[in-house]
Design goal:
The chain is mostly beta strands. The chain is 0% helix and 53% strand. It has strands spanning 2-7, 17-20, 23-25, 30-31, 40-45, 52-60, 63-71, 78-83, 91-97, 103-110, 115-120, 135-139, 152-162, 165-175. The protein has a four-stranded antiparallel sheet, with no helix packed on it. Strands 11-10-13-14 form a four-stranded antiparallel sheet, with no helix packed on it. It has a three-stranded antiparallel sheet with strand order 1-5-4, with no helix packed on it. β2 (17-20) and β3 (23-25) form a beta hairpin. The mean pLDDT is 82.
Length: 177
C-alpha cells in the first residue's frame, strides 16, 4: 500500500483525479485528513508496481501535474551530494537510500587516494530515506588527527551493505578558504 500526500496551491472544489500509467484510481480513495486544511489531500492505493519507470498524473479541472517515478524492485539505489560545495569550514554530505541497509561507512580521500577521514554510520542512518527527508553527515573539514585539511578537492565514498549486496556511491567536495 502506498500513501500519496499532496499540498495544492489553491482550494480544490473536489478531489483530484489520479492516474498511474494511464490507469485511473477512483476519487473515493482521496481524503482530507484535516477539515481546516482543504489544500492538503491524501490518497492510498495498492502498491503492486513492476520495476521500471512510471508516471503519476494528478488532474483538477483544467490543471494537470505529471510526476515520473521509478520502482527499483529489490535493487538497492543510493544517491548523494554535498552542500555547501565548495565549503570553507565544513560541509553536509547528504544521501538517500531506497531500502534500509545493514551497515554503512563514509570515507573521505584526498586526490592522491590517501584516506583522510572515516565515519561508521549508526543504525539511525541506515534506513530508507528519500530526497524529501535525506540522511546528512556533517564533515567539519578535519582529518582523523583533527587538523583542518588543505584547500583542494576531496573524494567521498559511501559504502553500504544490505543482505550481502554492496553498493558504493562517490562524490566530490572542494575546500576553499
Amino acid at each position: 500500500m502506498f500513501r500519496l500526500t499532496a499540498d495544492f496551491p489553491a482550494y480544490l472544489p473536489h478531489a483530484p483525479e489520479l492516474m498511474i500509467d494511464s490507469l485511473k484510481y477512483v476519487e473515493s480513495n482521496f481524503s482530507v485528513p484535516d477539515p481546516d486544511d482543504s489544500l492538503h489531500w491524501e490518497i492510498e492505493f495498492p502498491g503492486d508496481f513492476t520495476a521500471g519507470r512510471h508516471v503519476l498524473t494528478l488532474k483538477v479541472d483544467e490543471h494537470t501535474w505529471n510526476f515520473d517515478f521509478v520502482v527499483t524492485g529489490n535493487e538497492l539505489v543510493a544517491r548523494t551530494f554535498c552542500f555547501p560545495n565548495p565549503f570553507r569550514d565544513g560541509t553536509n554530505i547528504i544521501y538517500t537510500l531506497n531500502l534500509p541497509v545493514d551497515s554503512g561507512t563514509l570515507k573521505i580521500y584526498n586526490v592522491s587516494g590517501t584516506l583522510i577521514r572515516s565515519f561508521d554510520l549508526g543504525s539511525d542512518m541506515l534506513d530508507a530515506a528519500n530526497f524529501g527527508s535525506p540522511h546528512s553527515i556533517y564533515w567539519n573539514g578535519r582529518d582523523s588527527a583533527g587538523s583542518m585539511v588543505a584547500n583542494g578537492t576531496y573524494i567521498y565514498l559511501l559504502h553500504f551493505v544490505e543482505g550481502g549486496r554492496v553498493i558504493e556511491v562517490t562524490g566530490k567536495s572542494v575546500r576553499l578558504r
